């Protein structure tokens, strides 16, 4: 949950900052390079940002939030997290195997 709230905060802050930048620069740009030039400049910056994200940001589709978190960890922290995850999985399996959920009902 901490990652979700942190990412939403970062996303909201960057949205507001870039909206402020566009608002502050638009009138000056329209005087310097016309309205069309301003929009073309913003479009070029958007294409550059798209290329940056396409090639340098890892794909996270289909991953859980915990798996996304491990993508951004160092190798040492990633190995520790994977070891803890394996221990938890083994503990849950052992508890599951100790309880007999699939017992046959007794016939009367």
UniProtKB/TrEMBL annotation:
Q: What is the recorded membrane topology of this protein?
A: Multi-pass membrane protein
Q: Which GO terms describe its cellular component?
A: apical plasma membrane
What keyword terms does UniProt attach to this protein?
Answer: Membrane, Transmembrane, Transmembrane helix, Transport
Q: Which InterPro entries match?
A: MFS_dom (IPR020846), MFS_sugar_transport-like (IPR005828), MFS_trans_sf (IPR036259), Myo-inositol_Transporter (IPR050814)
Q: Provide the Major facilitator superfamily (MFS) profile domain boundaries.
A: 1-61
Q: Which domain of life is it from?
A: Eukaryota
Does the keyword section mention Membrane?
A: yes
Where does the chain cross the membrane?
Answer: 7-27, 39-57
**GO MF, any single term:** myo-inositol:proton symporter activity
Cellular compartments annotated: Membrane
Chief localization: membrane
PANTHER family, per the entry: PROTON MYO-INOSITOL COTRANSPORTER
The name this protein goes by in its record: MFS domain-containing protein
Q: Which organism is it from?
A: Caenorhabditis japonica
């Amino acid at each position: 949950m901490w990652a979700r709230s942190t990412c939403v905060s970062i996303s909201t802050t960057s949205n507001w900052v870039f909206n402020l930048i566009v608002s502050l620069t638009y009138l000056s740009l329209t005087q310097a390079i016309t309205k069309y030039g301003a929009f073309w400049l913003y479009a070029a910056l958007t294409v550059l940002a798209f290329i940056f994200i396409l090639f340098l940001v890892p794909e996270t589709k289909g991953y859980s939030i915990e798996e996304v978190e491990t993508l951004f960890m160092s190798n040492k922290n990633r190995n520790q997290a994977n070891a803890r995850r394996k221990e938890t999985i083994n503990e849950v399996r052992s508890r599951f195997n100790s309880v007999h959920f699939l017992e046959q009902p007794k016939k009367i």
